Amino acid sequence: MRFKDWATRVLLISLMFMALVVVLIIGRATKLHNNSTTSHISNSPVMAFSQYPQVQFQSAKEPEKKSQRVLKSPVNINKPVARYVTTQAFARYRPSYQVASVDPSNYGERYTKDVNGVPLHNQPIIVLHETGYSASSAINFFQVAHNDESVQASYHALVKLDGTVVYLVPPEKRAFGAAHSVFETPEGVETVQTNPNLPASVNNFAYHVSLETPPDSYDSSSQQTHSGYTEAQYHSLAWLIAQSQVPDHRITTHRLVDRSGKKVDPINFDGNKFLNLLNTYRQVRPIYRVSQ
To answer: In a 10 Å sphere around its CB, with 0-12 CB exposed, 13-18 middle and 19+ buried, how is residue 289 labelled?
Structure first.
């Protein structure tokens, strides 16, 4: 074999080897990029659903504590790092409870991104409602499949006139408790649009609880007022929410978040009574950090 032919073959083999090395390097870089992207998505911050009430009874170790506060438009107050713990009063109160299934068409998943792909970091809120009619009529409605998205509705929980707590939608799911709605804070408004065909709402970060409406309001001529809720309802509502880590200033009402101008519930709600009971059933425990 002439030297020229031999040199040509060696050069071709060298080029093929270099091309293979380049392909392997590009493939590995692509794989690393994909892994990095996947890791970023999976580690995107999501709301702590454990901050919502769970379907369980909790024990209490702390003494009772009361405070006078009025339920009003949310006010963000800077506080030391702390968490709520339930009290002895909470441990003594034992409401009846039920678990009722809701048709899957009437609730959905909580989103980590809005309709435009923007990551969501809203902290949980609790929205208080009333049923308008009997608890059974509301539950029956939630258990029927609805294809029309403008009709679909649900709460996470409901409190009957006798104080029975009815668990409906798991807290990690998105209940359809409010249509066009906004939660106002001193830093601005909070709302999330997850469907391009529907207005933005608070549903993605809200836990919806409803009080059964007393019978004297069932007549359409008296739906702007009624006799009020029972003592058992106030106690069970406070007991339920005492199990959450949602602060007082992020507990609101359907009337306050609604932007349709039609929602006025819960009617005749006694905010003072509710917050007094809530602060009887839970109290703040500061979390102390040891300096290094």
So the answer is: exposed
Give first-to-last CA distance, the chain, whole Å.
76
Q: Are 292 and 215 in contact (CB under 8 A)?
A: no
Q: pLDDT tens, position by position, for the chain (292 residues)? A: 555 555 566 555 565 656 555 545 545 444 433 333 322 322 333 455 668 887 654 433 444 443 333 344 444 444 457 899 999 999 999 999 999 999 999 999 999 999 999 999 999 999 999 999 999 999 999 999 999 988 999 999 999 999 999 999 999 999 999 999 999 998 899 999 999 999 999 999 999 999 999 998 887 665 678 999 999 999 999 999 999 999 999 999 999 999 999 999 999 999 999 999 999 999 999 876 655 4
Q: Can you tell me the distance from the alpha carbon of 257 to that of 250, in angstroms, rounded to the nearest whole number?
A: 11
The candidate with the shortest Cα–Cα distance to 125, out of 188, 204, 63, 25, is 204
pTM: 0.75
Q: Tell me the two tokens of residue 68.
A: 């006078």
Cα–Cα dist 125/82, whole Å: 17
Residue with tokens 């030297």: 3
